[in-house]
User: Fold these one by one.
Assistant:
Number 1:
Amino acid sequence: MKVRFWGTRGSLPVAQKSSAVRDKIAAALVAADGRRFADTAEAARFADDTLDFATNGTYGGATSCVEIEAVGGPSDDGAFIVCDLGSGLREFGLNAMARCAAGHARLYHVFLSHLHWDHIMGFPFFVPAFDPGAKIVIHSGHPDAETALRRQQEEISFPVAFDWLRADISFRTLEPGQRYPIGAVTVELIAQHHSHVSYGYKFTDADGKCAIYSTDSEHKIDRMDGESAFVDFFTECDLVICDTMYSLADSISMKEDWGHSSNVIAIDLCHEARAKRLALFHHEPTYSDADIQRMHRESIRYEELTREAAPLDVICAYDGLTVEI
Ligand SMILES: [Zn+2]
Ligand SMILES: [Zn+2]
């Protein structure tokens, strides 16, 4: 199974400001310390090997969109599997069109966590939705998913109406507690604490490999015994993608009840569930690359300090990351 992150930012798309790019260049020049490079390839190798991620790259600024690639099993129809339709969907759509031109099935199974704008805003820019040969099934725990997608393309908000889209688009409501064979995976849902409810998804492939997409979910540190349903859901999973929008200090001081969680709570839950890898996700839009990198390092340190059994590998999702399970 492969997991590709096309959008990892929470709430609002963001872009790097020129001052942030300049600061990265300045930090790289200081790190190079007068060294000479024969060509840009050699300089790029130096950047890869020597500079930290916040200097040589960026976590990106597109909102939630994650692709799950799996093969095999009786229901495998060769479809793309996509979690959420945030602004990262635009780039996924272009990439998918190229893969379709090379022979990939023009089928898409979409799984919506919920209907907040940052999770659906990419759909009007999703090129495959204009492909008359494409079939798109939008799965959701919400029966009102179609209403939300149609409403954001009403004339008052957008120039292209939903009815102008040429793909065969259908909606299907899923229920927590059921197991659905869809495409190359079996899918399960869990209802999460969030405004208008959100749903986490567990995808298990034919080999038993498992990835969980659990964003926009508020876990309360003072009610952790009430979180046992999530511990069960996350049990021994290979990869858990978790809403870790805030640092713990932010989440329990000014941002309590905002519907999101911290890195610390996600690590506690994954430890208890004996999950193997955690991806920090839905990054706060006001956090710089340096802020997110600092939170990632603190998360790794916290995981080491609180570990009681097997280690949990804590990674930090960024736009463009592919994880192999
Ligand atoms: Zn969100
Ligand atoms: Zn939300």
Number 2:
Amino acid sequence: MAVVQLTPRVWQLKLNLVNCYLLETEDGLLLIDTGYPNSADKRFAAVRESGHDPALIRHLLLTHCHIDHGGSAAEVQRRTGARTYAHALDAPLIGQGIAERPGTTRTPGLVNRLVYLFFIKYAGTTYDPLPVDEPLAHGQVLPLAGGLEVIHSPGHSAGHLCLLLRSEGLLIAGDICSHVMGLKYSTINEDRTLARQSILRVAEYPFERAAFGHGDALTERANQQLKEAFAAS
Ligand SMILES: [Zn+2]
Ligand SMILES: [Zn+2]
């Protein structure tokens, strides 16, 4: 477990190769993503390590429906009473605890094969359902942390979203791609061509830093680095 402060109001909580994000808002804390099932205790320990009280989590947002992001969401919600958010297209799956849409495929390559076998397939296909209070749409600006802009970025999943915190020049990128061994396509995608288009479209937004569901954050020229990594691939 490791906690990294990325900006004055954003903390990265790393656990089991999955990053969640904690934001200080005008109305308590916002937790973005929750990790695999049964990881709420450890994630709350990370929240405390960041200097915050998990009881103050008032908002819970999922970047998409996958089990490594939504797996502990119902437990976090039960323990905090947080208001819940996800993109309108993934909200119905999250509401039924369905981790993946049919047709999701693995990206070629040995590393992807191993990650898929040991982390994704192993984790299963269902988790405790989380009713989504507020289905989100592209372009919506949540009145949290000075304004958090929803960027719909389908491909990894149909309802995948990124969040732009303009005041701090930070993109919370979810699994739009991974940054574990350089910038690479995520291990699984519903539509990799669409994922690439989303990455390049998101890279047009103004942000210096980007933080991912898997791997370290980019701390400078993040939008340019995304363009360079995926322009030709
Ligand atoms: Zn994912
Ligand atoms: Zn993930």
